[in-house]
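Researcher: Last one for today. Full complex below.
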Amino acid sequence: MKAVVVEQYASIDQIELKDVPSPRIEAGQLRVRVEAAGIGFVDGLKIEGRYQTKDPLPFIPGTEFAGVVIEGMAGGFEPGMRVMGMTRSGALAEEIVVGPAALHPLPDGVAAEVAASFRANYLTALYALSGRASLCEGEQLLVLGAAGGTGIAAVQIGKLLGARVIAAASTPDKRDFARAHGADADIDYTQTGWRDTLKELTNGHGADVIFDPVGGEISVQAFRLIAWRGRHLVVGFAAGAIPALPFNLPLLKGGALLGVDLAQLPTREPELQKRLMSELMNWLANGELKPVVGRVFALEEFREAFRTMQTRGALGKMVVRIAK
Ligand SMILES: NC(=O)c1ccc[n+]([C@@H]2O[C@H](COP(=O)([O-])OP(=O)(O)OC[C@H]3O[C@@H](n4cnc5c(N)ncnc54)[C@H](OP(=O)(O)O)[C@@H]3O)[C@@H](O)[C@H]2O)c1
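Model: Here's the assembly. Have a good evening.
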């Protein structure tokens, strides 16, 4: 089968598409023909060996995918079923072998590209906004990096939860993209006066909840405008720098800094994960949530998918189409 193979931790330019044997299957596992794989920020870190946990070499990158079961029967899955999945690695390949816990049945009518870019970002957004911040109807939600993978998911989920969503992004295209997916207002947070704009947009109230996948100095600036009893969600550090927050700020604002780590959700709070996932699947099945698919690339163009994401050029999540 064809697969992207990381033999040495390296930049995407040095990673090759290769012909490799199909993975071996054991009892209790399922073989899935991969139709599409989503490329997230974490995948970019993993191929370079810069993620907090390193995949042993060689490995096939790609953590999120959608496809069809072609071999094995376990956990209610059988050949012919359409599925979406999340795994530690292996999705950028024509086939993947996983246990049933990695899979979720795909509702009819949901395209593979949608399913492959759905679970990580939308579950992160719902876990953050609902599970951690208890975002309420009518509250003001500020989303930083609002056109990125997690950001655009937070815009859409924020609207579904009844918040007023203010999208912060660096370019007109990105702000238009966030508006097109439901944001009520937008801000160019690369401008020095952006906090005055936020104050005006919220009538001096500030943001009740801040969804922050960006980090760096922007995070501290944003916290300074949080509303009384506001909640600032620490999601990631796409800008690179981990900010340091002076402790007097939470005191003065009656505010809270809340960590969000999707990787720990299944083991720490399995019941919550189940509930949030079923809420997402309901929204997906009844059409209330139409997840954003960014650009779709052919498998041979996998490097371009990574580069677009790594050079701050992505709108939504990048997807690689693998089989028809
Ligand atoms: N905590 C969790 O469970 C969890 C789950 C998923 C992802 N994450 C983390 O969340 C972060 C964002 O992930 P994502 O998938 O949303 O990434 P993404 O699609 O690349 O979006 C990140 C956004 O950050 C902004 N940004 C600001 N400075 C940047 C820089 N120097 N380089 C790149 N982007 C920059 C960009 O928006 P502008 O150009 O508009 O500024 C970009 O759209 C990552 O650190 C990822 O590891 C965490």
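The longest helix spans residues 270-285. The mean pLDDT is 96.
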